[in-house]
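Quick start: read one record
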Amino acid sequence: MTISLIHESVLLGPPEAYLQTVGFTVTRSFATHRFGYRGLIDLFATRGDQRLAIEAEMSPDRVLPGDVGKAFAVRATLLFIGTPNRRVADACTRRIKGSDINLGDLVVLSRPLGPFMTRLKALFPVSSGLVTGVRTSTPGSKSGNSSGDPA
């Protein structure tokens, strides 16, 4: 596999598809140029006041100031760094913790793809993004809604 394929399809494809499923608007290669930070965020996802910056990294080299700076520039509430393995994820975490950067309210998580997706699904479960106006019927319910309240 080439680096580009791993970056674009393997590390970004699953989170992009999942976030769209739970109601996020997702943009690939989102340009930022605020506060002196220029660059492209791999995935930028918004839903209401939630703003997620997702970066796929093959090494910890670009985490600081790049990934963190771009997340600040778009006022992200969460920076998720997806990596190919635990070794790279741990190195990203060490680089951020070893710096003197003030993260403020920004939450930074670095994980390989499997744990990354598990954490993403825990933070944003499928039920959290669905807007439903569909009534479900239960046995004995004449009104068509599951609570039994007259609609």
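The two ends are 55 Å apart (CA to CA).
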